[in-house]
Amino acid sequence: MFTRQTLYTLTTILAIESSCDETSASVCVDGKILSNFIANQTIHEKYGGVVPELASRAHMQHIVPVVSAAINQVQSTHDSQFTIHDISAIAFTQAPGLIGSLLVGAQFAKSLALSLNKPLIAVHHMQAHVLANLIDEDNSPEFPFLCLTVSGGHTQIVLAKSPLALEVIGETIDDAAGEAFDKTAKLLGLPYPGGPLIDKYAKEGNPTAFKFAEPQIPDLNFSFSGLKTSVLYFLQKHDAAFIQNNLSDLCASVQHTIITILLKKIKLAVKQTGIKNVCIAGGVSANSGLRNALTVMGNQYSWKIFIPKFEYCTDNAAMIAITAYYKYLANDFAELSVSPTARAEW
Fold first, then answer.
1. Number of domains observed in the structure of the chain
2. Cβ-proximal residues to 82 (8 Å cutoff; 6+ apart), any chain
């Protein structure tokens, strides 16, 4: 447990995540996460997807209570005298994401850093997903490691040489795996967000009941547009009763196809690099089928597999905080003129 003396002398990061539809704040002390609060937005469910304008408005409503909750958690569990003035630096998600959502977090962080006279740290959202694997001190990978990063907007294979030396060695050339899950769920008549529902129904189905397209993309890149088209054409040949009667098998078959595509590429990446420390990250890394399949493959090929806790798979501020901690150690600070960006390369 940290004392007031150590909280005062160690590096303490307050991090804010607001890239999409989760507002989150976290406090990290010397690489240890002390709090991680997330406010979800249920308003998007009736629209079948995230509505950017509604998301940014919800962020404005949530951000002050969420930051307060993160501070209060440290006070209640570690030091009752801890205040926001004890923070060493303020971190925020700069890119990528919905620009309106990013602006709320960025402007709040910049204003707070200016008022407290604290340094500002800008964090790339996808880099943070990778480094979420470093949060658990008792089960974190040694460098170098490979990370399969899978979310609604991105699908990548990342070679991590150090916390701040990350290289994308494979990525999707069109759609992301998470989008394939959600779009397929919509075709099946499932409500948003559909990815977790496919995972739920897949547990009761036969993964080889139906065959869908597996695009053959060279090297370590991915493609999921062909799979979505394959599912669409298949479902157009059948009525609603067929879908309802075969829902579990359809979900299991789609999930099996997506996981097969992902694991074929990570297997090739291990072969090409010789690195057998393998992680997953991103929202889709919460998928139980993917987690189980990667664990089985790791046992088969004697890989060391690292899977973040569920709370660190989806968008959260703890991953922003752990990334900012390493950037703080490297004196990698941002100017107050920094602006959020909807799309940004590493």
1. 2
2. 4, 7, 71, 74, 75
Classified as helix, coil or strand, 222 is strand
Q: Which residue, chain included where needed, has tokens 């493609």?
A: 223
- Helix runs in 43-157, H state only: 52-77, 99-116, 125-131
Task: Please check the confidence at residue 22 and state whether its pLDDT lies above 80.
Answer: yes
Q: What is the CATH number of the domain that holds 267?
A: 3.30.420.40
Closest residue by Cα to residue 342 from 28, 109, 52, 117: 52
The DSSP call for residue 86 is G
Which structural domain range is residue 123 located in? 4-131+315-329
Query: For the chain, how many residues are written?
Result: 346
Q: Supply the pTM of this predicted model.
A: 0.93
Q: How many helices and strands in the chain, by DSSP H and E?
A: 11, 10
Contact 210, 234 (CB under 8 A): yes
Predicted confidence band of residue 53 (pLDDT cuts 50, 70, 90): confident
pLDDT band with cut points at 50, 70 and 90 for residue 3? low
**Is residue 303 located within the same domain as residue 180?**
yes
